[in-house]
Request: fold
Amino acid sequence: MTQPDGPERTLALLAKAPTASPVALMLRHAEREEITPGAFGNDVPLTRDGSESARRLGMGLSSRMMGVVKSSPLPRCTQTADAIIAGAGWKANATPDRLLGDPGPFVVEPELAGRLFLDIGIEEIVRRQLADDQPPSGMRSTSSGARLVLRELAAALNGPSSIGVFVTHDAVLAALVGHLYRLPVQDFPWPDYLDALVVWPASDRLRFLWRGLGEGAHPVGG
Reply:
């Protein structure tokens, strides 16, 4: 279950972004405890290894000026953000942000969408988000949700060499990555613990990187 190379993989990807540019990391939380089948697991915390991995990622970010740090309000995300901040030695607190989870950028009717998540599973939800014109029940279109996320990331990209950290969930990241790269769910690496989409500005576009894929671009307001 443990992914010891998670921080190193993300730091290696970050190293491919321009060093003088502000960068945002949209990342999955660190390793968590198991979720009981048939439950949402909202209160499930990080494992000890997960906390240590997030702290190690923070240490790798310590040379960067701290930008915005936000997380989904769920414990595994807030704990990840706190551990990253501690590892980096930054003097600030993470800001809970429901755009990153509970309910996230794609869910508009949590009760309706929640039942579907339990019935068919996260990967099938994301497959439908990327394959169908009509969004799954209780959810907004994938393009609309992705646009909300990208606007928030773009707003955080200021200050030379600053690093913004946004801690979210695999379902949010998978839908965003698939949408940006125009790929079905089986054609890109599913977000593992501490995997990150690396984003930076370039003129009127956002540039981005995901592990195993090439560099992409998207209009800032598109």
User: Anything to note?
Assistant: The chain has a mean pLDDT of 92. The radius of gyration is 16 Å. The chain has seven helices and seven strands.
